[in-house]
């Protein structure tokens, strides 16, 4: 049938508006007692809340399938982020004359969360919740990230159970030198709801 006057039937709105965040930080290292005694600078093991807040940047948001696609298309692919370029190069480069990028100790995170929820455990929607974690070998994150984001925002995670879709707050892809880590963040939920979410991954 024809669309109602003034309604654009080519737009497919999502149930929620979603925000995309990016952060980049140095990976922590465990302190060495010998270095501490010798007076050598020691990198802190865990970043502070202030450091994290200063390093996370909101890139924008989307509220329809049509606005999601160009957004993802313009993001730097996970395999091209600084934390990944050395590892990805060694997996896919066959040109021995080309110099490999220097190894880096950076961690780069992409976060997609419902717009009312910050990608932080202190956000009230995340307090008391948890996450499902999938460790990815290098070279597969580009495809997996895109598939999970599409599944998340189109409410395919959890199938037809609407209670489960409302329990998923967001997804984080943490790109590291040796592996990538995908985390699905969930609000406080029942064991049954958590199992449904796990089984849909």
TrEMBL record:
Basic and acidic residues composition bias: residue spans: 32-49
- List the Pfam families hit by this protein, alphabetically: IF4E
**Which GO MF terms does the UniProt record name?**
RNA 7-methylguanosine cap binding; translation initiation factor activity
Lineage, top-rank taxon, reads: Eukaryota
Q: Which UniProt keywords apply?
A: Initiation factor, Protein biosynthesis, RNA-binding
Ranges for the region named Disordered are 27-49
GO CC terms: eukaryotic translation initiation factor 4F complex
Q: Which Gene3D superfamilies match?
A: RNA Cap, Translation Initiation Factor Eif4e (3.30.760.10)
| Entry similarity comment | Belongs to the eukaryotic initiation factor 4E family.
Q: What is this protein called?
A: Translation initiation factor eIF4e
